Q: What sequence folds into this?
């Protein structure tokens, strides 16, 4: 059960983000804006997954570690890794998010919202 605990905040963050994306998709007009939003969402999701990966591997206080500075700057490195992954095509999250945003926008337009 302890192995599931770190995943729960990630799942809660993701569900809140999906609600925000749903609300934002209703106001977006261009495909380029949807692409950008979907890529940003994928980058954020990748950063969250990568940060979970590093929770048990803190070697900053080891002989060759960077100490407090390494702990302070590690989130920036994780963010850059996520940015690089998403710019190189990602893992498919952006495509799925854009498809769902298009569905939400189509339903909103059909309902006359």
A:
């Amino acid at each position: 059960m302890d192995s599931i605990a770190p995943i729960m905040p990630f799942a809660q963050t993701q569900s809140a983000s999906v609600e925000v994306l749903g609300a934002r998709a209703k106001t977006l007009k261009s495909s380029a804006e949807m692409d950008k939003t979907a890529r940003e969402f994928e980058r954020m999701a990748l950063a969250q997954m990568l940060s979970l990966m590093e929770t048990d591997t803190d070697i900053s206080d080891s002989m060759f570690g960077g100490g407090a500075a390494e702990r302070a700057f590690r989130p920036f490195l994780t963010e850059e890794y996520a940015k690089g992954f998403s710019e190189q095509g990602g893992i498919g999250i952006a495509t799925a998010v854009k498809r769902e945003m298009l569905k939400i926008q189509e339903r909103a337009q059909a309902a006359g919202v």
Summary: Confidence is low (pLDDT under 50) at residues 1-8. The chain has one domain: 7-111. Residues 7-111 form one domain.
